[in-house]
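[job 4417] fold queue: 2 targets
>>> target A
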Amino acid sequence: MPKAPYPLRPQLMKRSWLETHPRWKIPLGFVILLFLIGVVGTAVVSVAMASIHHSEVYKQAIARASQNTEVRSQIGEPIAVGWFISGELHVNGSAGNANLSIPISGSKGKGTIRLVAFKSGGVWRFSWLQVEVAGAANSINLLLLSPPQ
């Protein structure tokens, strides 16, 4: 006699955990939504920070601060740049403007590069470029040709 393709006595279907605990649907959905918002927010901030880190005005400001003897003596060497930059950067082809605060640190202390710059004709021109050293009363002007004696 041939065997039946299905059991003669049907078994009860097992219910999932979510089906046995229906009150957890809304809190779990809320947690998942918060997680997704966090992932998207982190991605947006990462892309914005990466674009600033690759900008020409950022690189010029870091280079000027690293080459300045007064900055190196007060902050120490090597000068490390912080990852989270505040401010704004707008570039549209050969024109643009920047207003940034870049955290830096060294073996002797911490500081912040503050800059205001405008781009015209593809060239960045700084109207404000200073390093504020934590704990120091005066800031270091990086636009001076030679440091004050």
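>>> target B
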Amino acid sequence: MAPVRSSERMTVITLPDPCCILLVGPAGAGKSTFAARHFPTEAILSSDALRAAISGDAADQGASRAAFRALHRTLDRRLVAGQSAVIDATNVQAPARHAITRIAARHGVPVAALVFDLPAALVYRRNAARPGRTVPDAIVARQLAALRKTLDSGALAGEGYAQVVRLLDGEVGDRLVIRMGLTSPPAG
């Protein structure tokens, strides 16, 4: 697992193309902002956006089952088409990650996990400053604990990711370049 902290230099991460990029981290960690900064809009599959499309409210947890069914169908279609996808959800629980890795495995597409392992105080501050809605602190605390348990147990290492990158501070997104690399030489 490659840890990445901000520094004076740019850090380049090369991911396979196509690839399924799994963002992992609590609410407020900056996953959506990061995704919007580094990936094309059409590649980002956001559980919040799908809940909003289904129920009119991104926070409506009652719409989560339908939202994740839609996310999984869209992921399946993108991978069939040879397109990369970015999964913008907390993904701090193993069953959520496994659902994504099973879909990618069916298509022979590698999965890279970008883990937002940020200081708790920063996550709470960012969550409180989120435009539109904040997630209750008790839920954020549960998500932080689930992430810590996942990282401390080494679970990610055994889940078969092509690459796991831990983002360790809030500034790393400013000095990070994501490059989508070719898995084979172009024809011609």
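[job 4417] complete. Note on B: The domain at 2-182 is CATH 3.40.50.300 (Rossmann fold).
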